[in-house]
Structures are given as C-alpha cells and as structure tokens.
Write a structure and sequence with these properties.
The complex is a heterodimer of chains A (409) and B (273). Chain A has 409 residues and is an alpha/beta fold. Chain A has helices spanning 30-46, 57-60, 67-73, 80-89, 114-125, 135-139, 144-147, 173-183, 196-206, 221-235, 268-275, 280-290, 333-346, 351-357, 362-374, 392-401; strands spanning 2-3, 17-19, 24-25, 63-64, 103-108, 128-129, 156-158, 190-195, 213-216, 241-244, 291-293, 299-301, 310-313, 316-319, 378-381, 384-387. Chain A has three domains: 56-74 and 221-324, no CATH class; 102-211, Rossmann fold (3-Layer(aba) Sandwich), CATH 3.40.50; 333-401, Winged helix-like DNA-binding domain superfamily/Winged helix DNA-binding domain (Arc Repressor Mutant, subunit A, Orthogonal Bundle). Chain A is 39% helix and 14% strand. In chain A, strands 2-9-5-8-7-6 form a six-stranded mixed beta sheet. Chain A has a four-stranded mixed beta sheet with strand order 4-11-14-10. The longest helix of chain A has 17 residues, at 30-46. Chain B is of the alpha+beta class and 273 residues long. In chain B, 49% of the residues lie in helices and 17% in strands. Chain B has helices at 2-9, 16-46, 50-78, 83-100, 102-117, 189-202, 237-255, and strands at residues 125-128, 131-138, 142-146, 152-156, 166-167, 177-183, 213-219, 222-229. Chain B has a five-stranded antiparallel beta sheet. The longest helix of chain B has 31 residues, at 16-46. Classes of the chains: A alpha/beta (409), B alpha+beta (273).
C-alpha cells in the first residue's frame, strides 16, 4: 500500500482494479492534516466528549435537503462500472490452457463495494454464486457446506468470505478447510470477495500466499471529481455549480458545459478523498450529508415528482466544509473497542453472535451498541449491527491509536 | 584547624541576592518537577499503547534534567567553581554522607544508575523479591510499583546492586502471558494443540502482531499445555489470561478432552514410634 503524493496526480481510469501493492491511499492536504492533528490533541486534553469547533456562520443559514431530494441529487452508487473494470482485469481468467491461478481474491474495505461488484460480475457471466454458511454451520464446523460448492469444471463466485468464519475457537475450521481446498486447486476456478478486515485477520492467522489478490483503486480527489460530476449530470442535468460553503470556491467544474468554465478551486474533494480513505461508499455518504442550499433560493419544480416537491435549486448547491465526523463517545474504552473491532472483522454481526464471541454480557453489548448508535457510529439493519459509513474513518483511527490490528486500506 | 579553614574558604560570602537566587532556583525546580510529573502522568492516562509508555518514561528523565540544571545554577552561587574547590567540596561531602547516610545515598546513586541503564521504567511490569506490579513512579530513592491487588510496594533502588529485577516488558508495549492447562494424558494432542491455538486467536484481548504458541510437556500426572500469547494492552494481562483460560476450558470440554485429576494422597497423621 502506498500513499499518494500531492501534485502527482495523473489521469487514470475512474474505476480501476489493481493489485494490493498498487493501492494508493489519498493523502490529506498538509494544512488539513496539521489542523486535524492539533484538533485531536486539543480534544485529548479537553476530554473526549468535547465537540468540534462550531461551523461557519454561513452554514447555519443553509438549508438541508429532504431524503427525496437527496436521493435525486445523489443517487445510490451503481457498482456496474466496478464490475466492468473487474471484467477487464480478469480478461484472461479463467483459462485452463494458460494454467491460471485457480482462485482470485477481490479485497475491499467496508463500503468499498466488493460484494456488489462480484455479484454483478457473476450475473454478467452467468456464474454461480456461493452463499456463505450460516453461523450455526460455522460453529458446528459443518462439512456439508462444502458439498454445495460447484464441481471443478464450472467457475464460481464467493462474494463475502468474511461471512464464512467467526472469531471463535470453533469458528475458524470451516474457512481453514476452504483455504486448504481452494488454494490447492481442488475447488476449480473461483473468484472470492473478502472484506479488508477479515483479510488482515486471515493473513495474521495463516499468512498464506496471495497471488492474484486485487482491489478497486482508491478514489482520489481527481476520481471523485469525475465521479460526482457524472453522478450529478446523470441525475440532475442542467445544475450549475457546487460550491464550498467555507471558501466559496467551486468544488466541481461547471456541470452544464463540456468546457471547465469555472475551474474547481476548493480543496473540498482533496479533503473528502483523504477523509474517506479513498473508499467510494464513505465518500458518497459524506458528500450526501454535506449537500445543502440557501433557504431563499427558489428551486425549480421537479417534473418527475408526483408530490410536486421541489428538487433542484436554480444555481448553486452548497457543500458544508468541515465534515461532521462522529466522535468516539466517552465510556468504557475497552468494551467500545471490542465491539467495534468485532463488527469490523465480521462486517456486521447480531447481538447474539457478539455475545457469543466477546467476553461481555448481552447487557453490556447492547448498552455499548446503543451508546455507539447515539453517536452515529454504528447502525442496525435486520438485527445485524454494522459500523456506519460516516463513522468508519474515525473508528479505524480510534482502533489504531489503541494498538488494535487494523486493515491495510 | 588549617583544614577547616580551607574548606570554609572555598565558600563564597553569600549575599542576600545569592540566597534569594538559590531559593528561587530550588523552589522553581521543585515546582517544575511537580508540574511535569503530574502533567505527563495525566496525559499518559489519556492515551494507550506505546505513547503511554513513552510519556511515562520521560517523567524521571525530565526530573533528572531539571535537577542537573538546578545544581549547575546553584553551585556557582555557593562556591567558586574551580576544580580544586569542587574536589575539596565533593570529597568532604562524600566523607560525611558515606558515614551518616550510606544507604540513602547508595539508593540515590542507584536511582541515577537506574535512569541511565533503565532496568525499569514507569509503565514496566517488574518483579522484585516476589512483588509483581506496574512501575508507577521512579523517585530519587525508591521505585513505586502497584500490584494487581492494588497494593503499593516501595522498593529502594539500593536493591538494584544485589537483587534480581524481573522485567516482563522492558520498556516495550508487549508482554507475554501464559495460560496453563493440565490434561489427562489420554487425548488427541494434535487436535488439542490446534484448539488451544484457535482459542488464543479468538480472544479479543490478543495482540495479533505477535505470535501465538502452544508448548506441551509430559508430566507424571498428565500433560501440561502452556498457551503463550500477548495482550493488546499490558494492563489487560490478567483479564487476558482469564479469557484464555475460560475459552480454553470450554473448547477442550467440547473436544471431549479430560482434565488431569491428581488423586488425593492420604497424609500420614500418626507419629512414628
């Protein structure tokens, strides 16, 4: 893994699959990094619950959008281009004549879209998708799951290897057997997706060779500029300007012309790329949360809206500078770290499984989760708790500061 | 008499200003030591891992620095700092202290040696004379440790000359913990070893940057397994061992492994005739 040096940005494909060694982490502008360091020190001295510096006055006067408006302005990420880039990367795979590596791994950080990309790739190629075993099968070290794997002649896709193990004394056997069979070629050609945290865990546990492991290149400021411009053009054609509420500078080039009539001057996207660690899902969530408009600006009516809700402001969309980053709440640090680390290692868990894996009672786990939820650090869907996209960067930093193992991204 | 006059002669006539200067330097040094000690200890408790250890280790070094600077500032106020004067003063002071405060001075010198050689630093876990605990403070005369049972033990630096100091982490952030398992010799050792290895991997206390190992030895009463691993935070060592033991016992029970049962041997109660 490398860090991007400032001012050395070349035009690269927007979606690009690269080997793990070629993954380049976007860096923050020097001033931003210095301010962040001083702020962190100040918060350490003042106490962990101290709030961040209040936003600019102008931001108080800005109007936030409704969910409907946000869905229009910033629709959910379409991972199809990611699947296309995977197809390009794997153009000569699988090919028995070339004696390809039997198993290819696609590694991605949380909210990096590796599961979606693999499912789309499998759909494009008509390849069968293997669902992970249920937790009961994992803990029972059930061998029957292997019988569901396709025969050697057909390639297959396992989109989420992180759901094939549990960090439990009985929870490693299934995935260990899977690695033994897959890496020895006994399972034929397979494409395996794995979350970066589970991948780091596997590397520390077995340190198996990883030929053919690839990842989606990080979205640096240039890529984000192209991505958000295309996103906006496709969803709200005719929109004019995106401006930084702090400096007033343009964040994206003018969207209504091919020429960059108003070149981007704001450091917003550089900050966003560094803040989100180049993870598109995290950057998208920050972008979406930063969108706002002036309250007195008359919006154009949305011709597609059945409710007649106004969607599009006439001229300018403002983005709040200084991301609203959640902070780790004051509380039992160890319990918080255990719960967050466990959630990241498994890319989401239920309370029942957390209680099975951690030396904490259900009550302690529930109260910790609720504390973290109140700080927007975790969220629950269908009883499965997961680290939130907005909270992910700060959680990763918190775990790193406390000497917990973190991922490579 | 001549000798007395010579010693007295090396001292300057202390003016009122010189006395005030000495008092100010002395008070300033004490204040600075107290402030740095409190501030750095407080700050160290706000962070964890290696940053905590660095901050704690800087406390005695800063104190030594302040003391040395204070002496450098005070001595010229009291005597003319020539070589002859210094030799005469130190020789006389050494003679007096050597007889009257031998152990105290020896502890202080050992304390200075300890700051240089660093056999223990604040934040280290040391064992001396059966007392095991975390070094909380290194004073001029003694080192203060707090045991896991929250008992403070004061150990004079003097012991450095002739006692064994066992240091579990030696200034580093890693400290090995060992969980012992005593098993009936009739079991599958390969599966048991693998199970115990996985037990360590499953513990959230585990420092994954460090290796996990399982050492097995055969004893007359059974098989002794030693599960060795490192916790993330040194202060979690006892919770870590507890977690390993609980997880290990559960895993071994699920495997069907029996634990060693040493039969009670009836003691001889009757007196020999």
């Amino acid at each position: 893994m490398a860090e991007a040096s400032q001012g050395n940005e070349k035009t690269q494909p927007l979606w690009q699959m690269v080997s793990l060694a070629d993954y380049t982490l976007p860096t923050a502008p020097a001033r931003e990094a210095a301010v962040k360091g001083v702020t962190a020190l100040w918060r350490l001295i003042r106490g962990k619950d101290s709030k961040q510096v209040s936003p600019e006055k102008a931001e108080d006067q800005l109007r936030t959008f409704s969910e409907t408006q946000l869905s229009r302005l910033s629709p959910a990420i379409d991972w199809h281009p990611g699947a296309k880039s995977l197809e390009i990367k794997l153009a000569d795979w699988p090919d028995k004549k070339k004696q390809n590596i039997p198993i290819r791994f696609l590694i991605g950080p949380p909210y990096g879209g590796h599961t979606d990309i693999l499912r789309l790739w499998a759909k494009m190629h008509g390849v069968s998708i293997i669902e992970p075993p249920v937790p009961e099968q994992i803990l029972a070290q059930d061998k029957n799951w292997f019988s569901d794997l396709p025969d050697h002649d057909r390639p297959w896709v396992l989109p989420s290897l992180e759901h094939c193990y549990l960090r439990h004394a009985d929870g490693l056997t299934v995935v260990r057997r899977f690695f033994e069979r897959a890496l020895s070629g006994r399972l034929g050609f397979g494409l395996v997706g794995c979350d970066s945290w589970a991948w780091s865990f596997f590397q520390k546990v077995w340190s198996f060779p990883q030929p053919g492991a690839i990842t989606l290149q990080a979205f640096d400021s240039e890529r984000l500029k192209v991505y958000f411009r295309e996103l906006t053009l496709s969803s709200v054609p005719g929109l004019l300007r995106f401006r930084d509420s702090h400096s007033g500078g343009d964040i994206l080039p003018a969207c209504d012309t091919e020429k960059e009539a108003t070149p981007a001057t704001s450091p917003f996207l550089k900050q966003l790329a560094a803040q989100s660690r180049g993870i598109l899902g995290v950057a998208w969530m920050h972008w979406r949360n930063s969108l706002c408009a002036e309250p007195n600006e008359t919006p154009d009516p949305d011709p597609h809206s059945e409710t007649g809700e106004h969607i599009v402001p006439k001229n300018t969309i403002w983005l709040r500078a200084g991301f609203e980053e959640p902070s780790i709440p004051a509380g039992p640090n160890q319990d918080i770290a255990f719960v967050l680390h466990c959630l990241l290692f498994h890319n989401g868990l239920s309370v029942d499984l957390l209680a099975e894996l951690l030396p904490l009672s259900r009550g302690e786990i529930t109260s910790t989760l609720l504390l973290l939820k109140s700080g927007s650090l975790v969220e629950a869907h269908n009883n499965v708790w997961r680290v939130s996209a907005l909270g992910y960067p700060v959680i990763r930093q918190f775990l790193k500061n406390n000497d917990y193992m973190v991922d490579l991204f | 008499m001549n000798s007395d006059r010579d010693i007295a002669g090396i001292f300057n006539d202390l003016s009122q200003t010189a006395v005030i200067n000495i008092i100010l330097v002395f008070a300033g040094a004490l204040l600075l030591i107290a402030v740095t000690q409190k501030t750095l200890s407080w700050l160290a408790n706000k962070v964890s891992g290696k940053y905590r250890l660095y901050l704690l280790a800087s406390v005695p070094l800063l104190r030594l620095l302040i003391i040395v600077v204070s002496i450098i500032l005070i001595v010229p106020q009291v005597i003319e700092p020539t070589v002859a004067n210094m030799v005469a003063l130190l020789g006389t002071a050494g003679l007096v202290l050597g007889f009257a405060l031998k152990d105290y001075v020896s502890s202080m010198i050992a304390g200075i040696v300890a700051l240089y050689e660093m056999p223990y630093r604040p934040g280290d876990w040391i064992e001396v004379d059966g007392a095991y605990g975390e070094v909380k403070q290194i004073g001029m005369r003694a080192v203060e440790i707090v045991t896991p049972d929250d008992t403070t033990v004061i150990i004079p630096h003097l012991k450095l000359w002739d006692q064994l100091f066992l240091n579990a982490n030696h200034g580093g952030p890693y400290l090995m913990c060992v969980a012992d398992f005593y098993l009936n010799p009739r079991h599958d050792p390969v599966r048991t070893k693998q199970a115990l290895h996985d037990v360590a991997l499953s513990s959230p206390f585990l420092q994954m940057e460090k290796p996990v190992s399982v050492i097995v030895s055969e004893k007359p009463w059974g098989t002794h397994y030693r599960l060795k691993a490192y916790p993330i935070d040194l202060r979690q060592q006892f919770h870590f061992i507890t977690d390993l033991t609980l997880r290990g016992k559960s895993a071994l029970t699920r495997l069907g492994t029996e634990f060693a049962m040493i039969p009670a041997v009836p003691q001889e109660t009757g007196k020999s005739i």
